[in-house]
Write a structure and sequence with these properties.
Distance between the termini: 144 Å
Largest sheet: 8 strands, mixed
Strand content: 15-25%
Strand order of the largest sheet: 7-6-5-3-2-1-20-21
Oligomer: single chain
Shape: extended
Radius of gyration: 42 Å
Helix content: 25-40%
Number of helices: 19
Structural class: alpha/beta
Length: 702
Amino acid sequence: MSDEQTTEPQAQPQGETGQRRNNRRPFRSRNNNRPEGTEGNVSTEPRQDNRPPRTDNRPPRQDNRPPRTDNRPPRTDNRPPRQDNRPPRTEGVEGNAADAEPNRGGRDRGRGGRRGAPSAPIDSNLRDFVVKNQDAHKNRLNPHFKLNLENNDKVRITPLGGLGEIGGNITVIETENEAIVIDIGMSFPDEEMHGVDILVPDFSYLREIRKKIVAVIITHAHEDHIGGVPYLFKEMQFPIYGTPLPLAMIGNKFDEHHMRDFRRYFNPIVKRQVYRIGNDFDIEWMHMTHSIIDSSSLAITTKAGTIIHTGDFKIDFTPIDGYTADIHRLAHYGEKGVLCLLSDSTNSYNKEWTPSELTVAPGFDRIFSKAEGRIIMSTFSSNIHRVYQAIQYGLKYNRKVCVIGRSMERNLEVCMQYDYIKLPKNIFIDAEEANRMNDKDVLIVTTGSQGEPSSALFRMAIGEHRHIKIKPTDMIVLSARAIPGNEGSISGMLNYLQRAGARVANDRDIHVSGHASLEEQKLMLRLTNPKFFLPIHGEYNHIMRHRETAIACGVPERNILLMSDGDCIEVNTKMMRKTKTVKTGKTYIDNQNNHQIEDDIVIDRQKMASEGMVMLVAQVSASESRLLSKPLVTSFGIVADRHDKAFAQEMEDVLEHFLINLKPGLIENPKALENDLRQVVRKHIYRKMKKYPLIVPHVFIM
C-alpha cells in the first residue's frame, strides 16, 4: 500500500474486544513484498476455509492480509474492517493466547499484566521447585528439625552471678552425673558497702554439688570473669581449662594469694579443638573479639544437645591483631543444631554496630599531635590493645613510656612475655626518670579511668602520688566508658584534675565498647539459630531488651526465659523450664589482706554510717537491781557534741526506768539483760529521732 493510498484509521468500538484491538501495535506495511498490481486491491483468490459467506453489510477489506484459515464464525457486529496488515489468527480464541498472538513483543499477559490480558501459563515444574525451596528454608531456619526429638536427656543451667548486675559472672552447667563451672568473676561494691573492696559470688551451691564438678571453664581474662577464682580455690580445687592469657593472669592472682602450687590445675587449650571433659562434656573454644586479648565463646556438647555460651563478645572485622571472631564455627554449630544459646546482653540498647578497636587511632593521633606537655593516658588495665595503640602513637611523637599502676604493669608484662604484643623494652622508663625528662617527651599510661580512690590517677589528681604531680600543661586522656555506678567518682576525679589546671580529653572517638550491640546480637542469633535462648550478662532491662531482639530473629517467645541469679533451668530437646532456685549472694572481700569480711560486719558499718551508734556502760546491783554509779554514755552520729551531756542524762533515765520494770530473774542472765536493754534504748531513740542506731550496751552485774 503506497503513501497516497493510506487511509485514516476508523474509530474502534468500545468494549473488551475493542480495547484489545486498540492496544495492539500495528505491523509495518508489507507492500514491498506484494506482487506488482496488487497494491490496495482486495484479494480475488478463492477462500481456503469453510466459513459461510458474509451476510453483513460491511464494506470489503481494503488491506492486503491473506485470507483467514481458522474456523471462527463470521462476525455479526457492525464494526468496520481492520485497517492494518496483521496476519490472520491461526487458532481459535480458546487456544493459548501467547501462541495465538506471537507478535506482541513478548509482553507479559499474565495475571499481573494489563487489564483484560489473558492469564500467563503456570509451569507446574517451576511451581514444584518453589514449594521445595520453601521447605528448604523451613528446614534451614527452624532448629526443631535439626534436633533429635527422641532424646530424653536433660541439662541444667544455673547462673550464680552476672544477672541483674554488671560483673560477678559465674554459671553452672550440669548433667545428672557431672557439672562444670563457667567463669568465676568478681564485681565492685556500691558506696554503702564501707570497707569492702570487691565482691565474689556465694559458693554455697558449689559446696552442695562439689563431688559433681569436673572442671572450671574460663572464657576470657577480665576481672568480672576470673577475679573470684583464688577465693574458690582456697576452699576447693578443680582442673581449670582456658586459653593461655586467662590462665597466666589467674596464675598471677595465685601468686599474690600465696597459692603458687595451684598452677598445677592449669589445662591450656587450643581453639577449634574439641576437648572431652569428664564423661559428659565435649567443649570447643571458638575465638571471639572483645576488649581483651584471647577471648572465646564455648560450644558445650552434651547428650541433651549443644549449648553455645558466647562469653563477652563483639564482632570486630578489623581487630588490632587481625584475629577476627570465628563466626564460621558458630555457623557450623548452627547448621548442626543448637539446643540453647546463652548470649551477652550488656549493650542491648545500642542500635549502631559497635565500632572496631582501630577507630580510636585517629583520635589518639589528633590528641598526641597537639599535646605540648605530658600525656597521661588512662584506660582499663586489661584493654591491652588500647594501651598498645597509645604506646604506638607515643612512639610516633618521640615519647618515652612510663607505666604506672600495679595491674597495668602486670597485664602489659604478661602480654609481652607471651608475645601477644611486641614492644621494645628500651622505650619504657620508670616514674623517677619521667620527672627528669622534658614533659613533651613523656607518655604516662596508668590505671584509674573509673575514679577508684586507690588508683594511680586518682592519687595523682589529689596530689598524693609519690612521684607524679599534675601540672597545668598535662593532657589527661580518659579512654574508657564509665561503668554504671562509677559516674560520681569519675566526676569527682575530673574536678580535682581540672582544679590542678590539666586539660582532660574524654571524647567519644577515643573509646569503643567491647560488647555486642543490637545488630551483632542479631548476627549471633542468626548464626547459631538456637531452639531455646537465655540472655545473660547484664541488668534486667538489658536481658529484657535482648529477649525482644531474639523474638524479632525468629526465636519463639515461649522458648525464651529471663533468668535471675539462682534460677535452675532444665533444658531438653522438647522443653525448657525453671525447676528450683538455689542460694546465691555475695561475699565481701577486703582487698588489702585478701580476706573475707563477714556479713554482720558490713551491716554494722552500714548502720553506723547511716544511723549512728550509742555505747552504754553501766554497773548494776545484783541484789537490788539498781545502778551503782552514773552510767557512761557515748554516742556517734546521733547528737551534736554540745548536746552530749543532755543525751547522757536522758539515757540514764531510760536505764533506771528499765531496771525498775525488770523482769524477774533477768538480772541473773547478763546477755539477755543486754538484749532487752538494747531494744528499749532503740525504741526510745526512734520515737524521738526516727533513727535506728547501733546500740552497744555493756552491763556489769555487781
